[in-house]
Every structure is written in C-alpha cells, then in structure tokens.
Amino acid sequence: MHGRIPRLVLAAPLAVxxxxxxxxxxxxxxxxxxxxxxxxxxxxxxxxxxxAAPALVREAxxxxxxxxxxxxxxxxxxxGQRTFTGDPISLDFxxxxxxxxxxxxxEISGLNIVIDPSIQGTVDVSLRDVPWDQALDIILRANKLGxxxxxxxxxxxxxxxxxxxxxxxxxxxxxxxLAGELRVITRPLSYAQAADLVPIIxxxxxxxxxxxxxxxxTNTLIIRDLADRLQAASELIVALDSPQPQVxxxxxxxxxxxxxxxxxxxxxxxxxxxxxSVGTSTGLVFPATAGVVAGTGGVNQAAPxxxxxxxxxxxxxxxxxxxxxxxxxxxxxxxxxxxxxxxxNNIEAEITQGSQIPVQTVSNNTVTVTFIPAALVLRxxxxxxxxxxxxxxxxxxxxxxNYSQTSAAQxxxxxxxxxxxxxxxxxxxxxxxxxxxxxxxxxxxxxRTPGLHRIPLIGWLFKSxxxxxSQDELLIFITPKILK
Length: 484
What we know:
The relative contact order is 0.09. By secondary structure, this protein is of the alpha+beta class. Strands 13, 14, 15, 16, 17, 22 and 23 form a seven-stranded antiparallel sheet that branches. It has a four-stranded antiparallel sheet with strand order 18-19-20-21, with no helix packed on it. Strands 6-9-8 form a three-stranded mixed sheet. The protein has helices spanning 26-30, 33-43, 53-62, 67-72, 98-109, 132-142, 159-177, 194-204, 227-240; strands at residues 7-12, 15-19, 75-76, 82-83, 88-97, 112-115, 122-131, 145-150, 153-158, 183-188, 211-215, 220-225, 246-274, 290-296, 307-312, 318-337, 340-344, 349-363, 366-384, 389-402, 414-427, 432-448, 463-483. The protein is built from nine helices and 23 strands.
C-alpha cells in the first residue's frame, strides 16, 4: 500500500479511527482489492469458520437481520427529533471517493448496502466519537442522498430518485386498486337522512370511481364502487345511522310582583248659608239668600276616608266636617309559567304559549288588521355529551300586553317583553338558573293646602302624604332530562 492510502486502526471495541496523510483519490482506494480486504478485516474481524460448514449454512439461512439494520431504522424521541444509537467512531477523510466511503460503512455496520450507479463525488469530513449512523446520515444529507430498506438490504440513491420511485409506486398502487370491477349495494336508512350522509360517505369511504344516489321515497342510499370500498362505506353507514337520544327540557318562568301603598291626610269641609227658611236674612231685597262652601286638604274624595266628623247647627245655617284619611294597601302577585318540550339530540325545539293582539291601521280608506304576538316562547337546542351532560342553546322570550296604559286615544296596549338568550352546560336532571331580572321602585308624593300646611304644629292638618313601593322579579329555571 502507498503512504497516501487511509490507514484504519482499531482504537476500541467497535470504534474505528480512520486517518489519511494526504489527499485520497478513488483510484488509490480501488487499485488493490487485497488491501481493501485487509482494511475490512482490521475493522470487523471475520469469525472463524468451523469444520461443520453445512450446519453453518443452515444457521446462516435462519440468522436474524444484521444488527446495523435495526440501528439504521429511523427513531425519534418525544419531541419528534431523530435519535442515533450506533457505536461511536472517528472519521477523517479528505477528498475521499464517496462510493468508497459508503462501502466502508458497509464494513463498519455489517449492512448489505447497494449503491446507485449515478452516485459520484468526494467526501471531506473530520468527525470524532460520533455514532456511525449519525455520521452516515450527515454524509448522505451533504450529498443529497437518501436510502431505502428492502428486507435486509439498504439501497443508497439520490433523494430525487427515491422520491420519484415512491411516487411511481404510489401511482401504480392506485391504478391497481382502481382497476377492479364496480359493484352496487343499497342501504335503507332508519334514522339518518340520506341526503345528509352523501357528502360524508363520498369523501370518507368511496374511491374516485365511486358514486352515491338517493331514493328519496324510501330514504335509501344506492352506492356503486369497488368491493373493498363498499365494505368501508357499509361500516360507516352502520355507525352513522343510529338512533339519537331525546332530551326533555322543562322551563319554569317565575314572575313575582310586590307593591305597598300608604296614604295619610286630613280634609276640612265647611258650608253656611243665609236664608229666611233657616231664620237668617240679608235684610235686602236682592240678594235675599247667600251660601258659602269651603274645603281644605288633599285627600282623594273617590276613596273612602278612614275617619269622618261633621258638626252643624240645628237649622243647618252652618256646617263643619273633617275627614281623616289613613289608608294602607299591600299586594303580592306570583305568576309561574312552566313550558316543557322534548326533542332529539342537536335538533332545535320550540314551544309558544300566549295570544296575539290585533292592531288596526287605515291606509287609503282601507282597514288592515295586523296581529302582534304577545306570548311565551321557548327555543332550545340540546347537545348530549359523552359524559352524560347536556349543552343547551336557549332562547326564552316572555311578552305580555300592558292594558294599564291604554286610553281612548290609544286603545292598543303596549307589550312588556322579558327575554334571555344563553348557552349552558347542565348535568342530566339538574336545574340551573339561566336569568334573573329584579326591578325595585319607590315613590313619595304630598298633597297640601297652600300656605296653611306651613303653619307650625297644625300644618300637618292641611296636607296628605302618599308612599308607594313596588318590586318586580323574574327568574328562569331550566331542567334537562335525557330520555333513555
């Protein structure tokens, strides 16, 4: 061997150091096969051959794959990065022939390597104590090469060649798969709508040659495709055409109204007259009679008084009366609306209860009647989860006419509306509050006689105080029940 031929020294078990005194050319690596065999023997000593050669031949036929083949298989860690597990080696090549270097890896790893004829080039590397599979991977990537494993043989070729071969094999496999005879099956559906399953089956199970038709009258799918694709489509239909559980939704809409009113005041009244019939006279021809009526206080005359006192003369020429007004009223109203509706999973349900108010409009001497809804409306879309809970998209609208604000000029009542819209997650059979509205109002008024109500101590005899309080509360409860 010439001095410029690489010298391989066994530095440690399964660790090889390769050094070169100068540039190495491919012709120098190839010109003496005996020297190459000597180098390979230094790297991986050949095992001695026992006398029983036929038995060894049989054992070799049954021997497992070379250890380097398992090492060369791509392995990744939890982060998706490739890991290398080969024995560490050191390499030092300068302008070495690429094909000769790749053959060296065959001797190091014990792999059966086939090198593509198109591979040419040189290698310049200097590596210290790196796994041999990592060193091979770096050299391949530096030269745009890749490898494929076929049984116990590793084939090294340009990446573009391997990619083109993979694409060609895929096209051939697809062509073979689509070359079969088309068959037709029919699948009547019990729970799902045929039109809803067509895009799912077409995209998930059928080949480019397959198609689906629908018989609307019987809700049947007519599928034409290859035999293996028909089997996949049938299994998909069985999974999708299943009964969906139903959900019963019960809503309780509670309206509470509390009001309190208190009135306190005094009213004075007086009347007198001058008339000969009661023994009095003006002494004049005109006016011969006269009368005076007076009153104070702001108590509502339409309401009954709490206490009344009247004073007067026997003849009735002069009368004096006083009324003490003391009134207190309390009211409480509780309205409970409990709509209940059942529906299938992921299907919207709606229930309405109430009335419609007619409204007349006149246009071009034509009377048109329009009906305005004033009702309780509940819309629910339930979704049953795998854990047994229910996700509900809920819309509650409670509208009621308010006739207290009507008049002769405006006979149409206004609409008092209370609504809630939300999405909640509730366990089966549990109750949740999805909304609450609380209104509270207070009012104080005073009716009084001007001037007289300012008199110290007795001014309260000439005024009336009214206090009013009102509270409104709306609560909406929802309870879903899965019907099994």
